[in-house]
Design brief:
The protein is an alpha+beta fold. It has 4 helices and 10 strands; from the N terminus they run βαββββαβαββββα. It starts with a strand and ends in a 16-residue tail after the last helix.
Length: about 280
């Protein structure tokens, strides 16, 4: 049986910026501190009006980040990378699926308490899980073993396979609002580039002149769940509580899709029901 693990999770909210361009968005630094009650390890402010601001840090065993773009605000969970440069390059995954699940749900509920005051017209959840493989044939086999029967096709050594479907339906939480439940099955190649740096405390880190970036390549079967609502009118934006309800409904949809594919990533997404 293939070993599937979470690779990435993201909660996104879309302000009505296209319709209300004068509304100023909060900075990633401000939102990071409010969301995780701590200062980020890194912060990059916008370099021009169209560039994002971004803040990154750690929470327990997860890498966490917030980025604010002119048209969207992302809260992202990712694996923690290598601790030392002496470690061999590896395709890092999130090992604690329960912690991953709990943090995604907590971010959704925190947004439901009015963290962002701007008018929001759309929200989305994104969860990607992968199963590393030795080659494309092995990845194809792993992928087809969890694709629902009605979508399966015969694969051998084909490369760069992608299949995406959307199964939209009316929201159970917000009346008359349509939601998209998108699943993408694919075989993906990942590259990890490592560069050796040196420097003493208090001095800039520099790469030795003889240093050559090392590139490690990995292949994996991948399933991504991208669930979101059809944008509402900016005249009637989503309330904070509606944002949380739709985000939790999107995560519940991911749990349902995982079960339908007999895709076991560990604890956290078992029930498909998220308490508000």
């Amino acid at each position: 049986m293939s070993d599937w693990k979470p690779l990435l999770g993201r909660i996104t909210i879309f302000p009505a910026a296209l319709f209300v361009p004068s509304a100023e968005l909060p900075s990633a630094l401000e939102l990071f501190q409010k969301m995780w009650d701590a200062a980020p390890l890194n912060f990059q402010g916008p370099t021009n009006p169209l560039s994002p601001s971004s803040a990154q840090g750690k929470r327990a065993g997860l890498g966490v980040s917030c980025s604010v773009h002119p048209l969207r605000i992302d809260f992202t969970l990712s694996p923690v990378g290598r601790e030392t440069s002496s470690e061999l390059p590896r395709l890092a995954v999130i090992e604690d699926s329960k912690e991953f699940y709990d943090e995604l749900a907590r971010v959704a509920r925190t947004l439901g308490r009015g963290l962002v005051t701007n008018s929001i017209v759309r929200v989305a959840t994104f969860v990607q899980v992968i199963s590393p493989a030795a080659n494309s044939t092995e990845a194809n086999v792993a992928l087809m073993s969890i694709v629902p029967t009605q979508y399966r096709i015969a694969l051998g050594n084909e490369e760069e396979f992608i299949l995406q479907v959307n199964r939209p339906r009316t929201s159970e939480q917000v009346e008359k609002l349509k939601m998209n439940f998108i699943t993408k099955w694919s075989v993906e190649n990942f590259q990890i580039i490592s560069v050796s740096v040196s420097g003493d405390a208090g001095t800039p880190l520099v790469a030795p002149q003889s240093s050559v970036p090392q590139v490690a390549q990995f292949i994996a079967a991948s399933v991504a769940f991208d669930n979101n609502n059809v944008p509402v009118s900016p005249d009637k934006p989503l309330s904070s509580s509606q944002q949380a309800s739709l985000l939790l409904e999107g995560l519940a949809g991911t749990a349902t899709s995982l079960r339908e594919g007999n895709l076991n990533i560990g604890k956290g997404f078992e029930s498909g029901k998220f308490a508000h």
